Amino acid sequence: MTTYAGAEEWVPHDGGMRKVRATLGNCRGCDLWEDAEQAVPGEGPVRARMMVVGETPGDHEDKEGHVFVGPAGRLLDRALAEAGIDRSEIYLTNAVKHFRFERDGKRRIHKTPSAGHVTACHPWLARELEIVKPALVVIMGAVAARSLIGPSFRVTQHRGEKVELPDGTAAIATVHPSAVVRSQDFTRDLGLFVDDLRAAVALLG
Ligand code: URA
Ligand code: SF4
Questions:
Q1: Which PANTHER family match (predicted)?
Q2: 22 CA distance to ligand 2 centroid (A)?
Q3: What pTM was estimated for this model as a whole?
C-alpha cells in the first residue's frame, strides 16, 4: 500500500466549517488532487443531527463541486425522500474529498480510493465530525466504513445495526447508493437501502 503524508498538516483546527471549506482545496495530503478538477467539500447545516458519509466525489461531483449530484446522488435523493429524511437537514460528505479515476478515451472511470487515500483524507472527515458533532452518522459503503471504523468492518454483515465510532458517536452502516444503482435486483436493494435509512431515523428518535 502506498502511504501518503496525509491531510493533517492542511486541516485547520481553529475556525469552523467555513474555514474547512476555504482550505480544503489547498490540500496535498495525497496524490488525488493532481488529476481531479477540485476538492468537493461536505454540505449541509453544521448543526445537523445526522451526518451521512459516502465514498468520494464522482465525475459529476468533480466537475460541479458539489456532493452527490450524479446518478448515485439521484438515487440517494429518492431513498432519503422515501425514508422521510429532508436532504437539506443532513450534513452530507465523503470519506475522500478528491475524485479518483482512470481515463478511458474521453471517459473518466471511477476508481475506488485505496486504503492509503482513505487514511490520508481521514483528518478532513474527523474535523467535520468535530465541528458538526452529529447525534448519528450514516456510513454508506465500505470506504466510509474503513475511514470511520476500520478495515475489518463488513457492511454486508452489519448493515442496519447500531454501531459506535471509536470516539463513541452512534452510527449505522448501509450500502453505498451506487451499489443500488448497479443492482441486478434494483427494487429489492432500493427497499433494503430505504429500510436502513428508516432505521437511522428511528435511532435518532
Ligand atoms: N458517490 C459518493 O460517494 N459521493 C458523491 O459525492 C458522489 C458519488
Ligand atoms: Fe487531501 Fe483528501 Fe484530496 Fe488527498 S483526497 S489531496 S488527502 S483532500
A1: TYPE-4 URACIL-DNA GLYCOSYLASE (PTHR33693:SF9), TYPE-5 URACIL-DNA GLYCOSYLASE (PTHR33693)
A2: 14
A3: 0.98
